[in-house]
Amino acid sequence: MAEDAEVVKNKQVLLKDYVTGFPKESDFIISTENTISLKVPETSSGVLLKNLYLSCDPYMCLLMQNPDSNSIKESLASYTPGSPITGFGVAKVVDSRNPKFKEGDLVWGPTGWEEYSLIDQLDSLFKIEHTDVPLSYYTGLLGMPGMTAYSGFYEVCNPKKGEKVFVSAAAGAVGQIVGQFAKLTGCYVVGSAGSGEKVDLLKNKFGFDDAFNYKEELDLDAALKRHFPDGIDIYFENVGGKTLDAVLLNMKRYGRIAVCGLISQYNLDKPDGVHNLSSVLFKRIRMEGFAVFDYYHLYQKFLDIVLPYIREKKITYVEDITEGLESGPAALVGLFSGRNVGKQAIEVAHE
After folding, report:
1. Beta 232-237 vs 251-259: how paired, if at all?
2. What are the Enoyl reductase (ER) domain coordinates in residue numbering (predicted)?
């Protein structure tokens, strides 16, 4: 470490202990005890980032659980109690010992929930080349959620003009993009959400053909039959549980289901059973789980499609941004009660 390197305070969000059930604000600690040098150590080939925006995403609750009690350890490393949690963010390079990045570069990718992060694993760090759109978009529309929507809808579901598409959690970071992709493809699309405000957004801002509040539906099977009397070709799955069970009854023959998330199940001691799996067999439904990381090689193709849509105002995006790292725990916990409207992100610092 250079002797003249400036050392600064580094506020962090720490996980207090492994979480059982739904996370609470009290499961986190805001720490101001840590300091960090503003130079990358000579022993590292990484980059030092000043975090500008942090993304709140449902999968993060799985990383809060004891790795001995869930299966997420097979693909992602759990958080360590007493250490900063991690997620996706937008940041500015303060110092670099890697030829791919230089001081002043703007990037998005995995980072810590702290003011400054030293990142050694750079495979998933993307340089931001287009700054004529809001930087916060790289936590959502132009970042991991946007790539998730693109890869799940186009690569997994292979949509065709005129098909009938259903999206659950449709007002969320991924769902709102999927619905707009469906409309741009010439599909009929219906979304479900958890409030009247969100249903209104789906129909009047995102251009969904129709939408409903699942909390007001006593019979989800009947609700789907009302909106899809001839059945569903494509289901973009974000919630699991009773919604998935009802959808299976309403899929068309040779329908496709992209399993992106199961947010209703993540914090349950005993996840809901799925009782209508016979539909997968008898209707020849293709149901495929996917991870966005497997499609990162398509990021430039994704940008080539989505950036013109944004500039031509063919795609719109709603964000729910809170200010300050200390607001992070409440924003993250709020995901699981549907408190956010649109993509939930935290503004840590101005550029």
Report:
1. parallel
2. 47-346
Give the count of beta carbons closer than 10 Å to the beta carbon of residue 77.
Answer: 10
DSSP 39-100: S--TT--SEEEEEEEEE--TTHHHHTS-TTS-SGGGTSPPP-TTSB-EEEEEEEEEEESSTT
In this prediction, residue 1 carries a pLDDT of 44
DSSP 16: -
| Stated length of the chain | 351
Residue with tokens 């099977």: 221
* Sign of the alpha-carbon torsion through 72, 77, 83, 89: negative
pLDDT recorded at residue 262: 82
The low-confidence residues of the chain, meaning pLDDT below 70, are 1-3, 69-76, 267
Q: Which pLDDT value is given to residue 58?
A: 84
Residue by residue, DSSP assigns 226-284 as HH-TT-EEEEEESS-HHHHHHHHHHEEEEEEEEE---TTTTT-SSPPP---THHHHHTT
pTM to 2 decimals?
Answer: 0.88
Distance CA 147, CA 213 (A): 26
pLDDT tens digits for range 259-313: 998 877 776 778 788 899 899 999 999 999 999 989 999 999 999 999 999 999 9
Domains of the chain (ranges; CATH) run 7-140+317-347 (3.90.180.10), 144-293 (3.40.50.720)
DSSP string, 150-192: HIIIIIIT---TT-EEEESSTTSTTHHHHHHHHHHHT-EEEEE
Query: Which residues touch 115 (CB under 8 Å, ≥6 apart)?
Result: 9, 10, 11, 12, 50, 51, 325, 348, 349
Q: Which residues contact 334 (CB under 8 A, 6 or more apart)?
A: 56, 340, 344
pLDDT of residue 297: 94
Are residues 204 and 262 in contact, defined by beta-carbon separation less than 8 angstroms? no
CA separation (Å) from 260 to 148, 289, 343?
8, 6, 16
